[in-house]
């Protein structure tokens, strides 16, 4: 029987700069910094992993292609994952997983209906 993913109560401090670095590739540095500020101020919310993946339009081939050894080891050991940092791209209507894509996929692989905490900007 597989264990369920355990979650921290808030993102780690290092998650915000990581999200901003990723977002800078998509929306540029200035917009990424503004989104980072919005993410820091956002309230924690929760949705099932399957809904977040669908909104991000992540192909299942990407989820299946990932090497889960590290995440599965962390789950078995009961390590807590940091909540996701998400951004809604109003132009494309796509949900961007700014930080936590691998954590989201690991949660989905364990249980598609698993509740995943996140902040949304």
UniProtKB/TrEMBL annotation:
Stated name of the protein: ParB-like nuclease family protein
Lineage: Bacteria, Pseudomonadati, Pseudomonadota, Betaproteobacteria, Burkholderiales
